Amino acid sequence: MSSHSQLDNLRVVLVNPRNPLNIGAAARAISNFGFFHLRVVNPYELAFREARSAVGASPLLARAEEFKTLAEAVADCTLIVGTTAVGRRDPQHPVKRLEHAAPLIRKRLVTSRVALLFGSEKRGLSNEDLSHCHWLLRIPTREEHRSMNLGQAVAVCLYELARDPHAAPPEKRTAASAADLERITSVLFDALRASGYLKSLPTGAPKRRSAAPTDEKIRRLVHRLSLSSSDADLLLGILRQILWKSRSGNDSAG
Description:
Blueprint: H1 4-8, E1 10-15, H2 20-32, E2 37-41, H3 58-62, E3 65-67, H4 70-73, E4 79-83, E5 95-97, H5 98-109, E6 114-118, H6 127-130, E7 135-138, H7 150-162, H8 178-195, H9 211-224, H10 229-253
Parallel strand pairs: 1-2, 1-6, 2-3, 4-6, 4-7, 5-7
Helix pairs in contact: 2-7, 8-9, 8-10
């Protein structure tokens, strides 16, 4: 998700946060992943804007908006999504896993504002808070330990929102040609024979049955490496140097 308007349309809302360090960490995560807006509802500690955990995100933390009620904090949003660990609660809402929720949120961000709610560190979102939500999302943590640190939960959710697999730039590499791979294979054969790994055959001698399958396995191995053109050139140079050294040593020994 690279559109500025999409990034600008998200509102991260912390409801009754207790620890200013978590608020600072949330601000840092918002900045890390390219979002812009933090809203805080009834923070327990009013001095949260000085949190040292907002490394590199002090300006974002300084302009965070404060609200007395959640209704005011989400009034301008068309989609309100709450986060929950679920547990023993019956939230009375559809609950989607984060990876399924993220595409739906990204789609709405194209046209309007979305509020993503996080509850207090101690109790999460209350039933009253949840009543403002259209649906909920959960981060797929293990059953035995569902609850996450507030700042970490914000970071995980925003990473998934920022991560758009369809927007990844194409890989800038030129694959090695079949001719490149065959040159590598040929030099590799020579090096393996010089080392004694493969038995050398007299000139003009017919290939033994046992040798052919080994050659084919090595050729397939080279192809499975999926080398780029530049990597193929490098490997070919390495193999030629090894072969030259091997032959030089054998000549000296003779």
